[in-house]
Sequence to fold (228 residues):
Amino acid sequence: MKKVCVVGASGKLGKYMVEHALDRGYEVVGVCRESSVGKLDEFKERITVIPGATNDRQVIEKAVAGCDGVLTVLVPWGRQHYSTGTAQAVLDYASPGARLVFSCGWHITRDGQDVYPRSLKMQETIGRWLGRLTRMVDIDDQIEACRRIFASDTLWTVVRGSDLEEGQSQGLPVWSRHVGDPILESNLTRRVDFALFMVAALENDALIHEAPAIVGCQTPSALAHASG
Fold:
């Protein structure tokens, strides 16, 4: 792994991924909206920034050219198929054999075997209602984006994040295949460590064609599983 692209580089998760990738010695290309380019000033002279919407196919084609890995933040913005447009462009234009790692939340399911707490179901219901009301969020579009990824024969991983908090790194999160597994009960991960898992997945072949649901390695449920 020598060169990686971070799609959605100017957001909180994206900036952490840029930092982790640079720490590993990767050459980094970042994609973000033109209005957000200034958020990446701390990385000036260290990364290449391609300004534009992440669902703009020409922007993605240019950004992922020659990259060994692509880290994509899938966000359910608006009602213009933002997630599906972003995911499809990455799937279509990434170099053959590139590692593709996508981020989303626990609400995404690959095989229907996840068991969701009532609180998460309620959050998703409210999110859908608010999305239809404000036209600012489209959870179903993010679900469709992941369906397309799961159906792809590329070297993909979809990392499903728990609730997030800020704070210093606690180390690489632990994961399980299904929400509802005891190890995930704490439902909390440091955002910086979510990014760490994303970057580490680039070189972890065991995660190819997996949709790991993650939780912080120092949370009570993770520690109980480790001692157990």
